[in-house]
Amino acid sequence: MARTEYYDDPNAPKPNSMVVAASAVVTDDHGRILLQRRRDNDLWALPGGGMDLTDSLPGTAVREVKEETGLDVEITGLVGTYTDPKHIIAYTDGEVRRQFNVCFTARITGGQLAISDESTELRFVSPEEIEQLPMHHTQQLRLQHFLEHREKPYLG
C-alpha cells in the first residue's frame, strides 16, 4: 500500500483517523543513526509505527524497531512529541491519518539487522549524511531535535 504525505497543503484530503505512533532514534557505537528507506513512499525515515491497544508508547517503539529492522533495543530517552495537525498522511486504501508521534531515543541490545516488508534498505547514517537523503521534513525535524541534544524534549 502506497502513502502520500502532505504538510500545510490546502489540497490535502481531510483526515478520517488519528493514529498514536512511536518512533525511535537508534544509534550505534559510532554515533550513526539507523534509518530505513520506506517501501510505501521511497523516503528515508526513523523506524516506528502505530500503537496497538495492548502496547505502551515505549513498548510500541521497541516492537516497531524489532519488526522493521530486526534489532532489539531499549528506550533511553525522549526526543519529543509530534502532533502537528498540518501533517496529513493518505494511504491508497482510503485511510487519511493525522498522526500523533512520540519519538524516543534507543540503544541496541541485540538482534540482527534485517530488512522487513516495510522497507527496501536499512542504513546507519552519520549526522552529516542526513541532509543528502530524500526524507519528509517531519522526519528531518525529529532528527534535528535529537542532534541538538536538547535539555528538554520537544513538545509540538
TrEMBL record:
Entries under Pfam families matching the protein: NUDIX
Residues annotated as signal peptide: none
Cofactor needs: Mg(2+)
Sample GO molecular function, one term: hydrolase activity
Domain of life: Bacteria
Residue stretches spanning the membrane: none
Segments forming domain Nudix hydrolase: 17-147
Keywords, ordered alphabetically: Hydrolase
PANTHER family reported in the protein's UniProt record: ADP-RIBOSE PYROPHOSPHATASE YJHB-RELATED (PTHR43046:SF16), GDP-MANNOSE MANNOSYL HYDROLASE (PTHR43046)
Identification of the protein by name: NUDIX domain-containing protein
